[in-house]
Amino acid sequence: MKLEIRPYQQGDADGVAAVANVNWPDHPISTEELLFQDAHQDPKCFFGRWVVEREGRVIAFADLCQMVEMYHPHKYVYDVQVLPSCQRQGIGSSLHELLLGILGKREALSARSWTHSTHTQALDFLQHRGFVEDMRSWDSTLEVKDFDFTPYQGVTEKLEAEGFHIRTFRQLKEDPQRNRKIYDLVSEFVEDIPFPEQATSFSPEYFESWFQDPALLPDGYLLMVQGERYVGLSDLWTVSGQPDRLRQGLTGVRRDCRHKGIALALKLTGIRFCQAYGASRITTSNEIHNQPMLALNERLGFTKQAAWLSMNKVLREENSIDLEKNEKQEKG
Questions:
Q1: Starting from the edge strand earliest in sequence, which strands make up the sheet with 5-7, in order?
Q2: In the CATH scheme, what architecture does the domain 140-307 have?
């Protein structure tokens, strides 16, 4: 049977989510979340998706995009996923060749993909095609049901005495500058977050649009405030189809407020929220060289799970595009 690859249509969302969830059961995505993410791409970033359909069912897809957090006009993020029952039939290879052709036309310098250290078949697929690991992050899990708060008595009270108070996203709704203040806060954090590429800024409008994410928990999105100033953040999000688990996204503190116990207080409040919410565990991910956050998580009892591997394929040298353009101009 001839393999047919076609551009993605919005009606394929259920099928794409199903393929992703079979391959990544620990990182599920709902159709609603997929459609939301697709609709909230930054306009400056390229985004394309293609699917393979068999007997009316999506059995594979490929994504090619650029990340706003480390935007470069000639660097891309690559993802090829095939249902396990349809693997080793040349489908992944065909999608790979399609993406390579598009990358060539777009004068791409590199393509990046992520996989788990435990997904040996996916890792072999990438390595065989020239992708090389250049960054690693650990997934970690904290069981919260029997968490012992005794060693941390007085942490929050001490901060309150110094003028620091924890407020939720919902509680701060009366602050007309709330979203912009969170944007400014996260913009500072991004400068210190380890990325495999140079971190880049993003617009307030793009950032604030993500407050409509269906996975957002307004009472689990925690801010440390000092007067009118926002100085710390730790956010919790739902996990599709897994009500017993919450996902911790970003935890950070402004540079001039670090080493006061703010991150610890935010994490402890997040654990209490998780218990009240009825979830039994929190999962998160940290780059292996982010020692302060790894140390804090270990102190609280987070246990490391499988590692995420950032795999990069260099397609041409950084200065090759400028050289080619200069040569064309000289010939013209």
A1: 5-7, 47-54, 57-65, 75-82, 110-116, 303-314, 132-143, 281-287, 245-253, 229-238, 216-226, 164-168
A2: 3-Layer(aba) Sandwich (3.40)
